[in-house]
Amino acid sequence: LIMKEQKTGRIGIMGGTFDPIHYGHLLIAQDAAEEFELDQVIFLPTGKSPHKAADKVTAPAVRCDMVRLAIKNNPKFSISTIEAENTEINYTYLTLQKLRQMYQNTHFYFIMGEDSLDDFGNWKNPAGICKMASLLVAVRGDSAQGIWAKIEQAKQRYPADMHLLHAPAFSVSSRDIRRRIRNGKNIRYMLHEEVESYIRKHSLYME
């Protein structure tokens, strides 16, 4: 479990499958750090997710390796393997409870995509998540249309401190990257060079 020893301040939580991590993820995290003056952003690769079939996801240790390679040159970025190492199903509200115990006097900002906001009502204990963290919603692509209405709806439904994250548009997805690798297409400039080397070295996403 790798954690920066910092007991106060403002911390962003960037959860995700990161299968693989790409520049879109890093842009969102960097933008959150700047826009909301975060002391650090913790990347939180999923282990067992209630939303995805485990057999379709690359092993957590491999995904964590790729995250470490992608973030190692940014002093504001760190990784937590708290979910990746958990063999039970991970629920965000339980993870936030654990992180709050580890980081006293900290305000958490949970970074999510618009697709997660659409599904937020089906998460375990969404009201509990809203009590423990502010929510930053990153829009995929360059259209923020309709997102304000969704944020207002969520604010009315839960005790939510929720903000739109104005990250630069980067319309690459992990699914795109996996498909391109399978089809023998180029993935350069979509993700960190060392992550690409790691993928090649371990022959990931070939089938």
Topology, element by element:
Blueprint: E1 9-16, H1 23-35, E2 40-45, H2 60-71, E3 77-79, H3 92-102, E4 106-113, H4 114-119, H5 126-132, E5 133-138, H6 147-157, E6 162-165, H7 174-182, H8 193-201
Parallel strand pairs: 1-2, 1-4, 2-3, 4-5, 5-6
Number of helices: 8
Beta strand %: 15-25%
Give the mean pLDDT. Answer: 91
Report how far the terminal alpha carbons are from each other. 31 Å
Major sheet description: 6 strands, parallel
Counted beta strands: 6
Categorize the overall geometry: globular
H-E string: EHEHEHEHHEHEHH
Describe this structure in words.
Helices cover 38% and strands 17% of the residues. The radius of gyration is 16 Å and the shape is globular. It has a 6-stranded parallel β-sheet. The chain has helices spanning 23-35, 60-71, 92-102, 114-119, 126-132, 147-157, 174-182, 193-201; strands spanning 9-16, 40-45, 77-79, 106-113, 133-138, 162-165. The two termini are 31 Å apart. Helix 2 links the parallel strand 2 (40-45) and strand 3 (77-79). It has 207 residues and is α/β, with parallel strands linked by helices.
Summarize the structure.
The chain has 207 residues and is α/β, with parallel strands linked by helices. It has helices at residues 23-35, 60-71, 92-102, 114-119, 126-132, 147-157, 174-182, 193-201, and strands at residues 9-16, 40-45, 77-79, 106-113, 133-138, 162-165.
What are the salient characteristics of this protein?
207 residues, alpha/beta, 6-stranded parallel sheet, 38% helix, globular
